[in-house]
Amino acid sequence: MTGSRVRAAKGQGGLLRDQLLDIAGRLLESGGADALTIRAVAASAGVSPPAVYLHFASKKELVHATCLRVWSSLFTELEAVSRAVPDPVTALYETCGAYIAFGLRHPSQYRLVTAGEATEASRQNEDACFRYFRDKVAACLDAGVPVESRTETARMVCAGVHGAVSLLVHQERDAWPRDTGRYVRRAAASTVQGALLTASRTCEPSTACVLRPG
To answer: 70-211, what's its fold?
Structure first.
């Protein structure tokens, strides 16, 4: 019965909060933003809605916390795939692939942060992601890759990885490519190659350029 609130033991309020976020995350993944409500979280936790409001003042705050909890692991994942890679261009490619794969694993959270209700999460993560990729571009510049503007090139990288994720997460899963791993690799490679090849000059694409050996 959801009307009988289960009180957390003294000093265990943080534990209940984590449990509520676990439930909120599962609801979000299985049913999207519409499924994530204070009442639904309370019912799944076996507590009353007021017990949830003790930790989250509104649904929006609950959405923010749920999304930020997932997104907080993004940079750990990015560093995990690039930390031991000595070549900065390869490291940039690996981080782009990890970013795209992350977004596809968490489509609901990705949509909410980049184009939905989680506006505070969006502000925090947009800036952090941009600065992260700009640092990766700077490493390429330090290694001798001709880059006129780290900021402009980082924008191209961010546009590429965000576009690759958004193209799929706004569609039904049955419209996704069968081999998402191949999609991730190609999208990451296209992002890095396109951004770095045009980092020192703007060139118009042509058949001759595409068919040029090497």
So the answer is: Tetracycline Repressor; domain 2 (1.10.357)
Question: In terms of Cα–Cα distance, which of 40, 25, 140 is closest to 71?
Answer: 25
Assign a CATH topology to domain 1-57: Arc Repressor Mutant, subunit A (1.10.10)
Cβ-count burial of 184 within 10 angstroms (0-12 exposed, 13-18 middle, 19+ buried)?
buried
What is the spatial distance between Cα 79 and Cα 94, in angstroms, rounded to a whole number?
9
Q: What is the per-residue pLDDT for 178? A: 95
pLDDT at 73 over 50: yes
Where do you find CATH 1.10.357.10 in the chain? 70-211
pLDDT single digits (tens) 109-129: 888 887 766 566 667 778 888
For 19, the enclosing helix (H) or strand (E) is helix 13-31
